[in-house]
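Quick start: read one record
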Amino acid sequence: MGTEAAMAILAPALCADAGGRPLDGMVALVSGGGRGIGRLLGARLAGAGAAVGLIARSADELAVTAGEIHRAGGIAAAAVADVTDHRATAAAVAELRQKLGTVDILVNNAGISGPVGPLWQAQPAEWWRAVEVNLGGAFVLTQLALAYMIPAGRGRIINITSYAGVYRWPLLSAYAASKAALVKLTENLAEETRPHGVSVFSVDPGLLPIGLGQAALRDRADRHTRRAVSTAGSATSSPPGGAPTRRRLPA
């Protein structure tokens, strides 16, 4: 997935074409900006003219993303914070605002998959951690960003959601439940902020071969392989008193 495709994900929410520099003079914050979709979106937002503030837990990954943006001629600054920690995240936003200026765009991208498996086997702390990151982290950053957007009378908030939030996704109950809640939070917040000139969107980028999507695609491929092997094994049967016979598998 290239940066053009990354911008295509955000373009409708930003009212921006994939080309040009429609975001000149704006400041965009991206959570989970150290890797995966966050890294791609940060790079493309910078390419569209925005000064990009990156927030994530890994200083090393943030340095890589910021370095790529700088080498491409863009403007970026990074701050380390766990989005579930309100105090640390508030400090990170204040630091980025001091370096870059006020907040015009927020992309709530930070997310984790949570425990994989039946709900009754999940560790409660791991299950709730996914909700805290995927939903609680978006709440924390949104509240902080709105402190600047509401007085300014403008702003755009983009929540990276998932198909799992609107359709069943067995064995990832914490992830699916948190993304469903994020979709509903987006719908409600959009109505609350509309009179203040702030637009809120949820964007499902689909399953992509990066970040959390990479693991999901790998798991899907593994399940497909296991199913194919199982089906091939059942294609050979031994009738009573006779040699094995082979039947044709359905296409």
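The domain at 13-232 is CATH 3.40.50.720 (Rossmann fold).
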